[in-house]
Amino acid sequence: MSSEINGISGYSSASAQKSPESVTINPASSHPKSAGDSPTGQPAVETVTLTHTAAQLRETEASLAGISVVDNQKVEQIKQAILEGSYQIDSERIADKLIALEKSLSK
What we know:
The protein is of the alpha+beta class. Helix content is 38%, strand content 10%. It has 3 helices and 3 strands, in the order βββααα. Strands 1-2-3 form a 3-stranded antiparallel β-sheet, with no helix packed on it. 1% of the residues are buried.
């Protein structure tokens, strides 16, 4: 059975009915009969119930998907400063940050 549940491969969204906390999967009727099939010969219905936390995680993930991890405005400002020759490098600040990073990694 090829399906998709909440963006996870392996479950087809066309055969799933979604609610905030549960997903019901109706396997395709062309699927070979298995031990879990009902006496009528129809495939059994599978239900997955998600916890409230999982539902919140799914909502948070969906809202974060549209947020850029790069501040494009700041990148453009730095590019422009480099092109103009006005970008100042603070070597002491860089050294301090490298030392702090090394200390945090050695813990």
